[in-house]
Design brief:
Elements (H helix, E strand, L loop, with lengths): L1 H17 L4 E3 L1 E6 L3 E8 L4 E7 L2 E7 L1 E3 L1 H6 L7 E9 L2 E8 L4 E7 L8 E8 L2 H10 L16 E7 L16 H17 L4 E5 L9 H10 L4 E8 L10 E5 L7 H10 L8 H7 L1 H7 L4 H19 L11 E3 L11 E8 L3 H8 L1 H19 L1
Parallel strand pairs: 1-6, 11-12, 11-13, 13-16, 14-15
Antiparallel strand pairs: 2-3, 3-10, 4-5, 5-8, 7-8, 9-10, 14-16
Helix pairs in contact: 4-11, 9-11
This protein binds zinc ion.
Zinc ion binds next to strand 13.
């Protein structure tokens, strides 16, 4: 009996050794944003694929592929763009037929593994065509890129940026909480408070679980003529003991401390989550920002705003850094307006992770940032 089992195991390994030259499709993930749907497939290196587009559908063919049972179930995703998915297979090629609601601009590329994803990734983006985008914005009550119509009485537009999102989970907590969920939750609570304040209006850089490139976040601030920019994060470090809030403002020269430099590296994840950002960051736009004339004043104002927020955060518990720190975060490169990045707490600290997941505590954090903003304007 024992022999039989080891023989079977041997055969199993033999057969999987034969299958080794096939690309395993390890996982499927879908992210819908107001402007595009992103399909991410974890694959092996050197995946061979093609895309064939016909009006309201497209076929993604992957040659020599192997589909895992768990992966198969995740395939049948629908959203405002994808109506239906069918899978066909002949000998070695898998064909995924996606029926769509409209015709979209399709872009595909592969990404290398990084510290968040150990597999190579095949990414397919379905972008709304230009006119569709405008239609969608007109339909939605809360436009993101269009200049808000309800701001006639609001003299101050506060841009609230929930860090990370979609394929970029941000920091992962001791109990596996994802930073991107916590930041969105706090951002939405903060937006509510701001929108309930006379003369103020909040605009979010994202309202769901999807990735927005760092430069796009800046563009949203510009398009909305924002008067202030607050980016919300919850960091992780190796030590489980690190705790407390800190606030960062932009330094063109880069981080002022080792800690700030390390953070920069993790926050400026320029090309890990989408190739689009790469081309974005190359354009002249960012360079122009660096030469912004009112930079000096912006720096002083950002420091002042940061200090006001820290003053409030101090009431919730000890701070990690008592004064605003400087770092070269891409997302803070909004021209001319005071911009801060708030590390609300350490998701890597078990106690703080628990706090960050609590609805009540999130509200306290949102309130501290809110009060800081109010005091800044006083
Ligand atoms: Zn973060």
């Amino acid at each position: 009996m024992h022999r039989l089992i080891s023989l079977l195991i041997g055969l199993f390994f033999l057969s999987s050794a034969f299958a080794d030259n096939r690309t395993t499709l390890h996982d499927f993930r879908f992210w819908s944003s107001p402007e595009r749907t992103r399909i991410v497939i974890d694959v092996d290196q050197g995946v061979r694929f093609s895309i064939n587009q016909q009006q309201n559908q497209f076929t993604l063919s992957i040659r020599n592929a192997k589909l895992l049972k768990d992966t198969y179930k995740k395939l049948f995703f629908t959203d405002q763009r994808i109506k239906k998915t069918r899978v066909k297979r002949d000998k070695t090629t898998y064909r995924f037929k996606f029926s769509l609601h409209h015709q979209y601009q399709i872009k595909s590329y592969t990404l290398k593994p990084n510290d968040k994803y150990r597999h190579h990734r095949l990414v397919v983006d379905l972008h709304d065509q230009k006119d569709q985008g405008i239609k969608a914005i007109k339909k939605s009550k809360k436009p993101i890129l269009k200049k808000p119509t309800s701001t006639q009485h609001a003299s101050k537009i506060i841009l609230i940026d929930a860090g990370h999102g979609g394929e970029d989970p941000g920091a992962i907590g001791y109990k596996r909480s994802q930073e991107k969920r916590i930041t969105l939750s706090i951002a939405k609570k903060l937006a509510k408070k701001i929108n309930a304040t006379r003369g103020m209006k909040a605009v979010l850089t994202r309202r769901g679980d999807y990735y927005v490139s760092l430069t796009k976040r800046i563009r949203i601030a510009q398009a909305n003529k924002a008067s202030l920019f607050v980016s919300i994060h919850a960091d992780a470090v190796k030590s489980r003991r690190a705790k407390g809030a800190s606030v960062y403002t932009l330094s063109e020269r880069g981080g002022s401390t080792n800690f700030a430099r390390r953070l920069e590296k993790s926050q400026n994840t320029v090309d890990q989550f989408g190739i689009q950002q790469k081309s974005d960051s190359k354009d002249e736009y960012l360079n122009k920002i660096l030469w912004d004339l009112s930079r000096k004043d912006r720096e002083t104002q950002s420091q002042k705003l940061g200090a006001k927020i820290l003053q409030q955060m101090k009431k919730l518990g000890p701070l990690h850094k008592k004064v605003p720190q400087k770092a070269g975060f891409v997302v803070l490169k909004t021209p001319a307006i005071p911009s801060v990045l708030v590390e609300t707490a350490f998701i890597s600290n078990p106690e703080e992770e628990k706090r960050l997941n609590s609805n009540k505590e999130q509200d306290k954090i949102a309130n501290a940032i809110y009060q800081g903003i109010i005091n800044y304007y006083k």
